[in-house]
Amino acid sequence: MNVKAIVPLSVALVLGLVAALTAWQLTSRQGQKTGQQKASAQVVVLKENVTPGTELRPESLTMGPAGSEKAPSGTFTSVEQVAGRVSTVPMVVGQPVFDTLLAPKGTGSGLQALVPAGMRAITVEVNEFSGVAGLLAPGCRVDVVMTMPGERSGENLARTICQDIKVTAVGQQIGREKSKDEDEKGMSRSVTLLVTPRDAEAIELGASMGRPRLVLRGSQDKELEASAGVTLAELRGDPQKQSADPFVNRPVEQVQPATRPSERMVDSRPTQRTRTVQIIRAGNVSTMTFEVAAPEAVTRVPLDR
User: To bridge 166 with a disulfide, which of 11, 64, 194, 265 should be the other Cys (CB 3.0-4.6 Å)?
Assistant: First the structure.
């Protein structure tokens, strides 16, 4: 037997077996992946980015794997179920569409889809100073501060009229991403706030007296603080003038009477005196003197109270 011929044949046989084993393993893995994909449920996903208030059209939706044999709760299994619904949050390409991310059926597109039941959207005019230098974005939380005339002291009063208010839109920007047109316009001059009906009335009343100032809150700061406001007297440190808030209890001032107290009459004259009377009778003149009681004298003496 020729050893030189056997060695190359053995090496070739081993290499062939290794190649066959490798090919079998690759084929098995691909088959497993194909089987998993076939077993995965199909749900509705997005084909493009979506901003809040956007109506979902059929051409922006497609079907994609859910990653499990059963579709997750809240997802949709057909495009027809989603078409015409309006998004309430930003969504990205490939993201499954959940019912909790959409407005109720029948809701129109735009800002109205972002206003919950019982709430109102109100827009206030701002500038670089009252609008936090144009750094506000949808989703921020702000307080609304107003300067108004004080009721009692006559000085201006600065007071927080609304707290922890959500910014729904800045200009016409509802989502956090600005469009090219909005970038060219520069800083927006209006901010839309999501408030209760009473807060909307307070902001409207305050705006009639001046420009509301928005004060930015921290993202985790939800605490509400009761404040009576600040007056110029307090800034000057005047101890005689406290808060001008009309709801603060103040001591009742003692008022002095404007009229004098009642007086009684006291007799200070003598009780007896004499009178002389001249009598003429048949041409004869005579006089007569007699004593009479004196009239009471009057003295004003204040009555004791």
Answer: 194
